[in-house]
Fold these 2 entries.
Entry 1:
Amino acid sequence: EAQVTQNPRYLITVTGKKLTVTCSQNMNHEYMSWYRQDPGLGLRQIYYSMNVEVTDKGDVPEGYKVSRKEKRNFPLILESPSPNQTSLYFCASSSGSGSDNEQFFGPGTRLTVL
Amino acid sequence: GIQVEQSPPDLILQEGANSTLRCNFSDSVNNLQWFHQNPWGQLINLFYIPSGTKQNGRLSATTVATERYSLLYISSSQTTDSGVYFCAVTETSGSRLTFGEGTQLTVNP
């Protein structure tokens, strides 16, 4: 089954404790991205990657890091989480080019930073 | 950047009713998608429809790219249709999806 997976689905952590949210897709997509969703602010892009070893900042990259060492994986790293990073996070992927660049989303990760 | 406006912001229906949700966007796009966010927070792809008309069961969508709007039709609504419906677009010059603020749909039994 074609899908985007994220882990963990739920996480409660404390300020300053480094964490990684994994994202993996099995559709051989070149384009992957991370979004966060917050009440009143909607969904905003954090980082994106057009291909392996190519990443770029989205609208709200501060406090996050990403890497794209393999085509299928695009982990989101919070080096020193803070309470304002409490949010619902989504990973997405698409073929990224041409006339068919439909984006597919993972199930989401609910992160709470105390 | 591109602006995406959805209407209405809230909609309450009785089961069995029909509804139309609208999405206006401010610039040319090469991608337009409709999503349903269920009560568990998951974003479900409904339609990928940068232009034209598509149907999937009780749902259908139409995008008129030249006039910069898209419509999502829900017929014979069911309680399981409740949730937030998002329209999202990608500008022709970019790759990021820009989301509208959504329509909160409540279907009562």
Entry 2:
Amino acid sequence: GNSVTQMEGPVTLSEEAFLTINCTYTATGYPSLFWYVQYPGEGLQLLLKATKADDKGSNKGFEATYRKETTSFHLEKGSVQVSDSAVYFCALRGYTGFQKLVFGTGTRLLVSP
Amino acid sequence: DTGVSQDPRHKITKRGQNVTFRCDPISEHNRLYWYRQTLGQGPEFLTYFQNEAQLEKSRLLSDRFSAERPKGSFSTLEIQRTEQGDSAMYLCASSRGLAGGSSYEQYFGPGTRLTVT
């Protein structure tokens, strides 16, 4: 079945550092890929998405490129801020059938001033 | 568009009691999903509605769980005879559906945190 693997956290960075959170997936066909962010005490918010190979999703300075050859969708940001501290979830939506999301276990990001 | 809302936000109950949660999706969204998130894990799919029809249920959804979406608007998730293992965050999401079966993005509510003592 479909699955998502994320790097373990927490990831601890200083403000303005470069961020990479790794995400790889296993799926049949051509899934759509997503990054969601969860701030403390809140629900999940869609951060960015990519629906086909080589697509780059971007939002709020975050980027991720859908790499079919490596089955990866790594999240990057050039300069993190304290306000980026949150849990980040990589997810996929299968190509066929109904449209449930399959999530990774999440990666906590802690950014210090 | 006020987003997906869930009620209550927190629920503490004793083992063996029944609980019911409500989800109000974004008004023009015809698809509604329930997920469960335990501490330190990503959300796991429970069930899915298109309009009022429940089209899929996960094996995680035991016989003690039931979900409804009367008239294709709000949805309820009921857990009967709660167990300590039911303690989790219950998330609701909604989306628009596209022709051919695909969907737009899912928008999540704030969740209902259930604690079973």
